[in-house]
Amino acid sequence: MTVLRRALAVPPFAADPADLIGLGVAAERAGFDVIVTTDKNIRYQQNLKERSIALIVLWTNDWSLLKPAASRISAAVDGVTAHSFQMIGPG
Q1: What is the average per-residue pLDDT within 36-46?
Q2: What is the pTM assigned to this prediction?
Q3: Rounded to an integer, what is the distance from CA 18 to the centroid of its chain?
Q4: d(Cα 12, Cα 15) in Å, to the nearest integer?
């Protein structure tokens, strides 16, 4: 069975740090299941216990490094659960 997830990709430079605090709330209200970002600090800016959204943090924003890991990233998005946090590293 395939599960369709709505993922919001947020590069670290896309939002003011103050705006990131409300990002989880806004993303949930918009129907997103997961935020995918390379911002390693977002984990500390979101209270996952109060959110149903999940966070996935990638080790880089370099597409040439992410492209070979696309299946791992896709599997992580497919497997998220509410309140979860996952870091995806190289290899």
Answers
A1: 81
A2: 0.77
A3: 17
A4: 7
